[in-house]
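Tip: read the tokens left to right.
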């Protein structure tokens, strides 16, 4: 995989290489070859290395798993197989084991991983890896509180989330600053043509050409969505006094606002008092 004929080395920096250790490399190949990741590989911004764990089985039958000590259902992937596969790779900044018991994968973790040069992903199957594999990795990641059949889909999620943060992969670097979670809030709703569809119109403000009004509307929409769907995010979102005013107009209580550490609402602007003009002496007074 790393011998992608399209790969042209990026002139400014080494590509971020993703090495996947898996029993099903063919499941991951489309994520590596197609769409934005495929193009980024062609431009030398990222590289993908698919490694079949069976190549390190160390036996004629390429058997990588065995029955669990203590009995019970299922099979467990051997630690010595994982160890040999890892030893075949160049040094990595992070070796990540996918497991439902891992740390929750978030945008903040993706941003951290995007700063590395070589990430290795260990994708489990069956009952997972022998627990001693944990000693070979730098971190364990879970993509949510559910159990899948294997780690490949989890690894593909992480590839998709991290690769798009590598500088140059996405054309407009500002495009992910407003993304859900990057700004601390959920993203605002987006619209495109047609302006009218089945009785639903695009909001007038987005068609008015007033960039300031569009920015204000988008911030309010992001706050409204986050308040309605993921109020937990507001606890760590950077909020301005204007956001506090928006959130309280949307029904957030003073207790919630103080729980989220929202800055105080800006005091209402004082009306400038009109000075009474000095009375013009009446001509008749003189
Ligand atoms: C059937 S699961 C093993 C589940 C394990 N017995 C447990 O309950 O924690 C097989 C493999 O799928 C992957 N996997 C399943 N769910 C996952 C999740 N939510 N996040 C990350 N990896 C997951 C892991 O690599 C795991 O080793």
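Filled-in amino acids:
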């Amino acid at each position: 995989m790393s011998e992608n004929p399209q790969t042209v080395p990026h002139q400014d920096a080494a590509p971020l290489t993703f090495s996947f250790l898996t029993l099903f490399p063919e499941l991951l190949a489309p994520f590596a070859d197609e769409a934005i990741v495929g193009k980024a590989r062609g431009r030398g911004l990222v590289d993908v290395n698919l490694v079949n764990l069976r190549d390190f089985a160390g036996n004629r039958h390429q058997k990588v798993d065995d029955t669990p000590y203590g009995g019970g259902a299922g099979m467990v992937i051997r630690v010595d197989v994982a160890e040999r596969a890892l030893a075949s790779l160049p040094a990595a900044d992070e070796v990540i084991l996918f497991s439902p018991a891992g740390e929750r994968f978030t945008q903040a973790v993706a941003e951290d991983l995007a700063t590395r040069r070589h990430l290795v992903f260990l994708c489990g199957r069956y009952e997972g890896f022998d627990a001693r594999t944990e000693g070979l990795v730098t971190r364990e990641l879970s993509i949510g509180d559910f159990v899948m059949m294997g780690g490949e889909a989890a690894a593909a999620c992480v590839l998709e989330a991290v690769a798009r943060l590598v500088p140059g992969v996405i054309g407009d670097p500002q495009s992910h600053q407003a993304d859900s979670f990057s700004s601390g809030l959920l993203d605002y709703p987006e619209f495109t043509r047609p302006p009218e569809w089945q009785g639903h119109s695009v909001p007038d403000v987005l068609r008015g050409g007033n960039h300031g009004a569009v920015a204000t509307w988008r911030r309010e929409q992001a706050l409204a969505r986050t308040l309605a769907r993921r109020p937990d995010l507001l606890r760590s979102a950077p909020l301005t006094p204007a956001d506090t005013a928006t959130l309280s107009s949307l029904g957030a209580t003073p207790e919630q606002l103080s729980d989220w550490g929202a800055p105080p609402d800006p005091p209402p602007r004082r009306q400038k008092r009109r000075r009474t003009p000095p009375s013009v002496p009446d001509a008749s007074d003189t």
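The radius of gyration is 28 Å. Residues 12 and 45 are 9 Å apart (CA to CA).
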